[in-house]
Write a structure and sequence with these properties.
0% strand, 78% helix, mainly alpha, single chain
Length: 412
């Protein structure tokens, strides 16, 4: 039937745009899920120090197990997606996420720290698959010139999950006795509930047709001869910068509660967890605000400016001047907010058919979050928690240098 005068009939382009939009919404939901999981991790760190009587350095093994899984799983996940597509990688990631969350049932009953480490390792294997799939997928679902802004928007919902988690974790892990349950049972409850949500989303994605965008034809890639990945300086520097950025983020989060308790007299761990949620709320606000600012300012410029500001804020944290230093640490989270997605988007730009493989190496760089917090914990045990924040200050210096490099060598 022909279209009526004055109306436009649906086109293949309209249908494709709708599919891209739906795929982008579903992928953005995944960002919320792993943000929520990460937000719980920092609260678990302090919870296990108290309930299992472990040192700060040993509690940092939580981060080692969690982010070490990213290093091990990123390349296999990328290889799987190169053969079977983004959707397969996403479904595998959700399956592992749910299995790891359910492993908290036997871990809680046993009350053994190593069991929790294994459960978190399995969860993080799933998240490595999700991040290896979802981060590049979000960048290719639209024009190349807005890829950084689009990924920052999706990552904003990651920040939302990270913001909500400490409120729930603080209440169930530290204040659970007020509700008639132990902190350990609160841990079990939240992870079982998370597993059920993850399974529901997996079923929804399985039943939804999602477009498969190839690196060769995506609008988000720059046509160019195939150049070996590690011959592309912007990509290699992005891997290095991401290693140090994640090291700084994870270290700041892992020891936030310790720092706040030490520098605000009378502050309980539960209330410090709520302060962490405030910091993560600043992180969330930074994501949304910076996404808007990217309409007027170059992403690489914002990256370098934010990194320099964080170096200065770390100086205030190292000074250890009570509430002012805690406020500075909270502000660090605001200026960290845009770093991961911006480094990621700049790093994979122009990789073409090598986008999935390149993305896997940038995800592998998340291993910085497994290695560096242990050194922060060890330094905190020996010389005090303030001294440990020299490490994030150095990490932000590396990020600032990458931002300068990206400004001087932009890719269209």
């Amino acid at each position: 039937m022909p279209a009526l005068p004055g109306t436009a009939s649906p086109t293949l382009q309209d249908s494709g745009a709708q599919r891209y939009r739906l795929a982008f919404i579903l992928v953005t939901c995944l960002f919320f899920l792993w943000g929520f999981s990460y937000g719980l991790l920092d609260v678990l760190n302090k919870h296990f120090q108290e309930t299992l009587d472990i040192t700060r350095a040993r509690s940092a093994l939580l981060q080692a197990a969690y982010f070490g899984a990213y290093f091990l799983m990123a390349l296999p996940a990328a290889a799987l997606m190169e053969r079977h597509g983004y959707k397969t990688g996403i479904l595998l990631g959700l399956g592992l996420f749910a299995c790891g969350a359910l492993l908290f049932i036997p871990a809680t009953r046993a009350g053994v720290f190593e069991y929790f480490l294994f459960a978190l390792f399995v969860i993080a294997c799933g998240l490595a698959c999700l991040e290896t799939a979802a981060n590049p997928y979000a960048t290719v679902l639209g024009p190349a010139e807005t890829s950084e802004r689009r990924l920052n928007l999706s990552q904003s919902f990651n920040g939302l999950g990270t913001f909500i988690a400490p409120f729930i974790g603080g209440k169930l892990f530290f204040g659970a006795s007020d509700a008639g349950i132990s902190g350990s049972h609160g841990v079990q409850l939240i992870y079982v509930a998370t597993a059920l949500v993850v399974v529901a989303i997996a079923v929804l994605i399985w039943r939804t047709r999602m477009p498969e965008v190839s690196g060769e034809t995506s609008a988000a890639t720059v046509p160019a001869p195939v150049v070996p990945l590690f011959s592309q300086r912007h990509f290699v520097f992005a891997v290095v910068a991401q290693f140090f950025y994640v090291a700084a983020q994870v270290g700041a989060g892992a020891f936030f509660i310790n720092y706040a308790v030490d520098h605000i007299p009378g502050l309980s761990s539960e209330r410090a967890a709520y302060l962490l949620a405030v910091a993560l709320g600043c992180f969330l606000a930074g994501r949304f605000l910076t996404t808007a600012l990217m309409g007027a300012f170059q992403a690489a410029r914002l990256l370098s400016v934010y990194a320099v500001i964080n170096i200065l804020l770390c100086g205030v944290v190292i000074a250890g001047v009570g509430k002012l230093s805690v406020a500075a640490l909270i502000a660090v989270f605001f200026f960290m907010s845009m770093m991961f997605p911006t480094i990621f988007a700049l790093g994979i730009k122009g990789l073409g058919a090598q986008t999935k493989r390149g993305a896997s190496f940038i995800i592998m760089a998340i291993v910085g979050g497994a290695i560096v917090p242990w050194f922060m914990g060890r330094l905190a045990d020996i010389a005090g928690i303030e001294t440990a924040f020299w490490i994030p200050a150095f990490c932000f210096l590396v990020v600032a240098l990458y931002g300068v490099h990206a400004r001087r060598h932009p890719l269209s």
